[in-house]
Every structure is written in C-alpha cells, then in structure tokens.
Amino acid sequence: MGGRPGRTAGIPGGPFVGAVGILALIGAAVAGLRAAAVWEPGTGWRTLLGAAGRRTVLDPAGSFLLVGGLAVVACSAWFVAPLAVPVLGAVAAAAVAVEERHRRR
Length: 105
Known about the structure:
Blueprint: H1 14-37, H2 45-58, H3 60-79, H4 84-104
Helix pairs in contact: 1-2, 1-4, 3-4
Keywords: Membrane, Transmembrane, Transmembrane helix
Transmembrane segments: 16-39, 64-97
C-alpha cells in the first residue's frame, strides 16, 4: 500500500498509445503542410489532404525534411517565442520546395 502515487495509475499500454498518437499528430501536420503547399483557389481540401497523405508516405525524404522544419519551429518557440513566426514562414517555403521536388521526380 505504500507505493508511490501515480506509479501504478493509468491505462495498460498507455505509453505505447501515447507514442502512436504523437506520431499520428506529426504525420497529420506534415500532410497538412504538404496540402497547403499545393493549394489553389477552388480546390477542395478533402482532395488535397488525401493526395498529401499519400505523398507523405510515398516520399519519406521530403516528409522527414518537413518534420525537421517543424522541430526547428518548436525549438524556436521554446527558446524565443517571437522567432517561431518567421521560422514558420521558412517551413512553409520548405513545404513548397518539397512539393516542387516531388513533382519533378
């Protein structure tokens, strides 16, 4: 009865479910960036997100570049919050470059 509080509390497999959730969130952010990079007026978001999801999986190198960019945004926001805004613009430009790279392949 004298265990540490919170040590045994929680759901079984909680850390695994948490890790899968974080990976899914990162994948969704990358797919969203890729969809926004190819958006044109009049194009439906459902179509854009479906195609971006496929490109996220089929072009892992480009996806990892965007994950790295998102990590830089997170670090910038952690250290100096106002720097996150211009860095986010740089990540948006990187998303356009990744999509152009994928289109040329």
